[in-house]
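Handout, page 2. Input:
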Amino acid sequence: MARAYATLHSLPRRLDVMATKRHDSNMKATQKRATVYFDAHLHRALRVKAAVTERSLSELVNAAVRQSMAEDVEDLAAFKERSEEPNLAFEAVLKDMRQRGKL
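Output:
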């Protein structure tokens, strides 16, 4: 018994946070599975946030991707709205700034 205790307590301790919500075996048919590789520090931060917010990693990643795509929709709308505006050459902008004493 003492040997088992010594062996158990001599193992390195792992202090990682584990999310309480796990993959649901009854996933909706609309959900798809993918493998995504995160930077180790980002993955740890996501796991901590998942535990604190009681959300799964998938929920956090889906929300972030949705937000990013919503921003893309806004950007595309702005590009379309300004598509008729004349293009300015970078050199012309610099020349104008220099003439106005901004450079």
